[in-house]
Amino acid sequence: MPVIDVTTDTDALSLTITAEFSAPVERVWQIYADPRQLEKIWGPPTFPATFVEHDFTPGGRATYYMTSPEGEKFGGWWEFVTIDPTSSFSFRDGFADTDLNPVDSMPVSVNTYTFSSTDNGTRAVYKSSYTSADELQKVLDMGVVEGASGAINQIDALLAA
């Protein structure tokens, strides 16, 4: 399994997941740059994602929905803040309604994903920061650790394909 560490820091209001992949940084980066590849790994395994919009540039937006096994759709949005090709990107991440409009009553995180070369491939560090302990706890209670870990663990199969 790619996920090697999960750390919740309630003082820093953050969640950090570290993973390692047996592929070069450029190949792992391509998954996030290409919405069709991203759809294959974003979200838990039983909730496939569909990216409607994916403007992978600073100031760009992404909108998507995940579909449950029962056919329910759960939307989300990203606003890209920084992009340093193949090494890192940061974005605001929030929940969306069925029309993919932001839901203001739900938590918004600031995420930074960093990628570095290792002797065996790539180390990825996924850090999500929240504005309050209540927001962090809300997503923890919703199963963000299990969902994100399950999503990240799907990357190996995509890399092997």
TrEMBL record:
Activator of Hsp90 ATPase homologue 1/2-like C-terminal domain boundaries: 23-159
CDD domains named in the record: SRPBCC_CalC_Aha1-like
Signal peptide start and end residues: none
Alphabetical list of InterPro entries matching this protein: ASHA1/2-like_C, START-like_dom_sf
Record-linked SUPFAM superfamilies: Bet v1-like
Superkingdom of source: Bacteria
One Pfam family hit: AHSA1
Family to which this protein belongs: Belongs to the AHA1 family.
Protein name as annotated: SRPBCC domain-containing protein
Organism: Gordonia liuliyuniae
